[in-house]
# Entry
Amino acid sequence: MSRKRLVFTVGGTTLCALGAGFFMQMGGAGTSAAVVAQPSPIQQSVDAPAALHASDEAALPDSGAITLIAAQPDMQAPEPMPAPDLEDAGGRNRPQADCTVKASAEPAAMASVDLSVTAPCFGNERVTIHHSGMIFTDTTDESGNLALTIPALSEHAVFIVAFATGKGAVAMAQVPGLDAVDRVVLQWSGRSGFELHALEFGASYGDPGHVWVGSVPGEGATGSVLRLGDADTLAPQMAEIYSFPAGASPTSGTVTLSVEAEVTDANCGRDIAAQSLDLRAGEGLQTRDLVLSVPGCSARGDFLVLNNLFDDLKIAAR
# Structure
């Protein structure tokens, strides 16, 4: 990744309760920005799945007994359309379409889950996926189907699939090998311009060990970054996940993690919010909220860099 990097330290009260080291990567004149410790707007849609994760997820009712709510509480939900009551040539009623939403989950490589959604009456529809506090939105195809591979955050992985009408489904899967994977998640709402970056074992930006959503998997890197979510949906919710197979690493050393946000027309001069989820072997899932005050639009093209939102990964060779 070719970027001119002029790094400026912003000290004092900007490094407040979140403990995040905050820098400005710039291509022009100096500007300022701030990290503030206040409840994140993204938390409005995170509370419900986080509460599920904190309790016994196995106690969730089945999909026929649960009322699901879309991730955007103030979005006007359209009235569900009844299936047409069609008649054949002889005047007899034909069976109505089956509009049941179904979801299935199967364990996949690298402690992930293959999630499949079938929703025949919800073609080309926005759908919200919840899993252990992670939330993202995607879009079904014309037939109402959606297939995704999702990095798991729990050995007993529960996935809630919710459409704007309140229709949805629940799928569960047992995920082996999660204790051998270190995993961090950055999630946000809207077009905030966030990116998650990992520098493995001393790599610099643009080196083979620099891992981000724009890098080629497997080219000199052990870990990988996956982006989930459809940025073109209404009020998109996005997530980026970095996974490192710590239980099978042939190398000892440190993986340095950072978060960047480019100053764009969509976010300049605004406060933008994100949330981190951090899962390390032998530890519970840790969360942290973040709000950034983005510089004005004259700083378009600059990059805000937070180096300490995540603790570095300490890797021991196996």
Summary: The two ends are 30 Å apart (CA to CA). The CA atoms of residues 8 and 30 lie 8 Å apart. The first strand starts at residue 7 and ends at 9.
